[in-house]
Amino acid sequence: MKYVDTNPRYSGIRSLVDQIPDKKAAKIQQYILKYADDYKKGGLDVVA
After folding, report:
1. From what superkingdom does this record's organism come (predicted)?
2. What's the CA angle centered on 39, arms 36 and 45, to 5 degrees?
3. What ranges make up the beta strands (E) of 1-48?
4. What is the pLDDT of residues 6-46, one digit of tens each?
């Protein structure tokens, strides 16, 4: 897999994300998924 910076002027957060253990990442994904349907309906304004 090749990673591409979306904006090469900024270093991004890849180095930080790489430090998150897989189990923690899975918990974060589970939490965020609770809001997926609302986000699809109206974006961040609906979720906040």
Report:
1. Bacteria
2. 145
3. none
4. 787 887 888 888 899 999 999 999 998 988 888 778 776 66
